[in-house]
Amino acid sequence: MESSEYQQIKLGGLDANQDLIAQWSDLWTSKRWPEEMQRIRNNELEKKYPGITHVFNSLLNNIPWERKDQATEFPIAAAIVRTIMNPEHSSIQYKTLEIVSKATNMVKQTGISSNHAEKWVIEDALKKLGVEHLPDDCIVVSTVEPCSMCAGVIANADATTVIYGASQDDIRGRKVLANGNMKQHRAEPNGYDSNEFINQHRHDAGRKVTVEGGCCRNEVLSRMALPGQINFIKENHDLFKDEESMARIESLVQYEKSRFSSVK
To answer: Per residue in 147-169, pLDDT tens?
Structure first.
C-alpha cells in the first residue's frame, strides 16, 4: 500500500490538468508493481543477497539529477559488489555486501558510445581487484537489465551472478530526460532475455550464471521518470496556474527526490 503521505499529494488526486499530468508522468507509473508484490520480491532477494536493497538505493542516489552543461546521461547505474562477513558478527547469517565499484552511464561525459554503466563498472572493478576476470564472490548489479553489449561484457568477465531492477520490457517506449531533452529510452527488441544471452555467451561454458531481476523495480522506474517530470513542470509552468496545483506538484517532487537522497 502507498503511504498516507503519498496518497495526500499524488497527482492522481488533482481534478485539473489531468491530460497534462498524464503527459508529465509519461505513463511510467503504469509499469509499477503493487507495493506488496514489490515488497515480496525485495524480501526474496534480501534473503539470498543480504544488503542488496541498500545497494540499489545507493545506486539510485548516485544518478545525477542534472548537469549545467546538459550532458545528462540515460539514468542507469551499476555496481560490482562482493559478499563479506559483517565485521560485527561471525555467523554466516550475517553476511553482507561490500561495494567494490559503482558508476552511472558515461557516454556523454566520455564521448564514447559504448561506455554504459555495466561495462564501465566491470572494467573499474577488474583494475581495482587486479584481476582479469571477476572473482566468484562478485555480483554485477544494475538498475536496468543489461543490454546485449553489456551482457556480452558480463559473460566475458566470468560473472557468476547478475541482479537488476527494471527489465528491458519495462523501459521500452518510455521517455527520459537525457542531454537536456526528452528522449525515448533505448531498449532491446521484444523477446530479449539477458539470462539466456549471458549464459549462451559466457566465458566458462561449464558454469551457469544466475540472473535475477525485479529488485527495487518500482523505485528504479520512479527515479528514471522523475527528472523528466521536473523538466515538464519547468517548461510548462504557465499551464499549472492555480496555487493549489503548483503546491501539490512541488510537494510530490520534493517527496520523490527525498526518497533517493538519504542513502550514500
So the answer is: 999 999 999 999 999 999 999 99
**Which residue ranges in the chain fall short of pLDDT 50?**
1-24, 26, 262-264
Contact 80, 122 (CB under 8 A): yes
Q: Grid coordinates representing 203?
A: 566465458
Amino acid type, 246: M
The torsion angle over the Cα atoms of residues 13, 19, 20 and 24, rounded to 10 degrees, is: 80
Q: Which helix (H) or strand (E) holds 100?
A: strand 95-104
Plot region of 208 (φ>0 → left; ψ -120 to 50 → alpha; else → beta):
beta
pTM above 0.70, yes or no: yes
The answer to whether 20 and 200 are in contact (CB under 8 A) is: no
CA 128, CA 259: separation in Å to the nearest integer?
31
Beta-bridge partner residues of 211: 162
Go through 21-54 and write b for each residue having 16 or more CB atoms within 10 A of its CB, e for each that does not.
Answer: beebbbebeebbeeeeebeebbeebeeebbbbbe
Helices 148-156 + 117-129 axis angle, to 10: 20
One DSSP character per residue, 50-63 reads TTHHHHHHHHHHHS
Helix (H, G, I), strand (E, B) or coil at 147: coil
